[in-house]
Amino acid sequence: MPYVNIKITKEGATAEQKKRLIQETTRMLQDILGKNPQTTVVVIEEVDTDNWGIAGETITERRKREKK
Amino acid sequence: MPYVNIKITKEGATAEQKKRLIQETTRMLQDILGKNPQTTVVVIEEVDTDNWGIAGETITERRKREKK
Amino acid sequence: MPYVNIKITKEGATAEQKKRLIQETTRMLQDILGKNPQTTVVVIEEVDTDNWGIAGETITERRKREKK
Amino acid sequence: MPYVNIKITKEGATAEQKKRLIQETTRMLQDILGKNPQTTVVVIEEVDTDNWGIAGETITERRKREKK
Amino acid sequence: MPYVNIKITKEGATAEQKKRLIQETTRMLQDILGKNPQTTVVVIEEVDTDNWGIAGETITERRKREKK
Amino acid sequence: MPYVNIKITKEGATAEQKKRLIQETTRMLQDILGKNPQTTVVVIEEVDTDNWGIAGETITERRKREKK
Questions:
Q1: Rounded CA gap, E27 and F48, in Å?
Q2: Which ipTM value was assigned to this complex?
Q3: Is F2 part of the annotated catalytic residue set?
């Protein structure tokens, strides 16, 4: 019955990678907590780098700094 | 004062349908819990079928299987 | 497949009322969007009145004002 | 360590405004609660006006009424 | 930078199990997406079985049925 | 109309501090984006340190290390 929400920045995750995230999250909840995979829901949200902040700066700014 | 977040897959819900979801959710909270509709907030999020998983598979995969 | 999160203040909603919220939300999504009730998940969160604010004041303060 | 999720309607917030939201939220949590800014995460979500309801009507409808 | 929110019913998950969920989620995001574990945040929420519904019934009801 | 969800670890935030978080968040959204404070909702969630992870460890573990 678990519900898992994964938020990541929108930086090119592929359909294949998202499929794996869903598979592995579902398996992990079965392995660790014995949760029924049939009712495990995983929702991935991809967020624009302008809309994500850490340490008071946006990811857009951080990526620029990192490239320098 | 309630806050309701409805997440559905992005599969063509119309503006009219979303309007009805908002109306009925607001009324339901007034009917069952006596909540003031003036401050009831409803937010609908539509999620790409690649980003939604149940039972360890994405909705994209599930829809393909269903069509077969 | 929908996932619905209902946040309300913790002010005495009964198990019976929460049961009705879950039933009606699930039915509403079937009626309006044709969603399969078998995989509709509803999670209710009850939040302390000190932790909920509207219009810049907590619900604790608002309830006090209303009683006067 | 805080995580802050700010949901607003998609009505033209600029990258500059979102940067300020992230800066000020991070600083506020440091000022009021002494939280370490290095691990404060802020995620802004912009929601279509058709998908946001208050008082049982969508923001799309409300904006139309306000213009009249 | 990912943020992961895992919601489960409050049915006795131990501190040890929650520790493993956090470790494995963090590792999974590094393995699949190359995300930096230093800024990966995982928040687990345990929800009362009266407050969680699937298929229109609460988990409290479902558990009772299952025991019969 | 904004909705803001602030998640922090449950480590003794006072009612007074939470009141200030609500006031300042509401004012910030008015200052930066011109949002109407009357319909700004802020919900604070306090999460057990066993249930919050960063960098693959729980806050409970991190606090122990910091004390050494």
A1: 22
A2: 0.97
A3: yes
What string of pLDDT tens digits covers the 68 residues of chain E? 899 999 999 999 999 999 999 999 999 999 999 999 999 999 999 999 999 999 999 999 999 998 87
Global pTM value: 0.97
Under an 8 A CB cutoff, do E41 and D43 touch? no
Mutate: best of B1, B8, B19, B22, partner D, most D CBs <10 A = B22
Q: What is the pLDDT of residues A34-61, one digit of tens each?
A: 999 999 999 999 999 999 999 999 999 9
d(CA A30, CA B40) in angstroms, rounded, equals 36
Note whether C45 and E47 are within 8 A (CB).
yes
Q: Which residues in chain A have Cβ-Cβ distances shorter than 8 Å to E20? A: 32
CA nearest to C21, candidates B8, B27, E62 = B27
Contacting residues for A1 by C-beta, under 8 A, at least 6 apart: A35, A36, A39, A40, C41, E8, E9, E52, E54, E59
Nearest to B23 among D7, D47, D56 (CB): D56
Please check whether residue C15 touches B, CB under 8 A: no
> Left if phi > 0, otherwise alpha if psi is -120 to 50, otherwise beta: which for E34?
left
- Domains recognised in chain E with CATH numbers: 3-67 (3.30.429.10)
Determine whether the interchain pair C4/B3 forms a contact, defined as Cβ–Cβ distance below 8 Å: no
